[in-house]
Amino acid sequence: MALQEQALPLGGVAPDRTGKYRTDHLLVAEMIAAGSKVLDVGCGDGELLQLLESRGIDGRGIELSREGVNRCVAKGLAVVQGDADTDLVNYPDDAFDYVILSQTLQATRQPKPVLENLLRIGRRAIVSFPNFGFWKMRLQLLVGGHMPRTENLPATWYDTPNIHFCTIKDFVQLCDEINVKMERAVALDLYGRPVPLNLPWWVWNMFGEQGVFLLSRGGKGK
């Protein structure tokens, strides 16, 4: 199914009066209703969890690095150390309203089982990732002849934790393959602005620096 057919209208990214939050985090927070129970997988230093808590959302986190866990705990956040590839299987079905995987999918060893677990544990999942089909990536590889580096992917090829890069088109195909319903899909451009919905999907794949997707179970035959 074409991406444009699956995308629902963007309700608007809530403005951040303090300017301290990333645009993709604001977009994720805007997708979640107040009072929801949320698990943030790969929560890093807890920036998104702090934003969610400020909006009346009950957030918990899993983080692989001990340094990240320590930073979260120091902020008073409920975060445990864990690996998305191995530890999500220990969570029961429907334990959360939403499970978030923010800028972490490309660092997992098994993206497909991880995505399936997100939608087993949570009634909905929100996934964001850097789009490897972004024009700047293509240009660096085509003209420069080297692995791309951007603000969102600053590490060199030999020092990056990312092992499964994908494009927006690749991710949509994976969602189709495992029968995932795409409730909302937003591509953010180089400046963090949503790419207009009325443009063809290949424009999203070319000009979206990152994708943010709200997913639920059972996209086909329902």
Question: Which key features would you list for this structure?
Answer:
222 residues; alpha/beta; seven-stranded mixed sheet; 7 strands; globular; disordered N terminus
How is this structure best described in words?
With 222 residues, the chain is α/β, with parallel strands linked by helices. The protein is built from nine helices and seven strands, in the order H-H-E-H-E-H-E-H-E-H-E-H-H-E-H-E. The chain has helices spanning 3-6, 23-30, 47-54, 66-74, 84-87, 111-121, 135-144, 168-177, 201-207, and strands at 37-41, 58-63, 78-81, 96-102, 122-130, 180-188, 210-217. Strands 3-2-1-4-5-7-6 form a seven-stranded mixed β-sheet, sandwiched between helices. Helix 4 links the parallel strand 2 (58-63) and strand 3. The chain is globular and about 45 Å long. The chain starts with a helix and ends in a 5-residue tail after the last strand.
Biggest sheet character: 7 strands, mixed
- Give the radius of gyration: 17 Å
Poorly predicted regions are 1-17
Distance linking N and C termini = 15 Å
β-strand number: 7
Order of helices and strands: HHEHEHEHEHEHHEHE
What fraction of the residues are assigned to beta strands by DSSP? 15-25%
Structural class: alpha/beta
Mean pLDDT: 88
Helix content: 25-40%
Tell me the strand order in the biggest sheet. 3-2-1-4-5-7-6
Number of helices: 9
Which outline best applies? globular
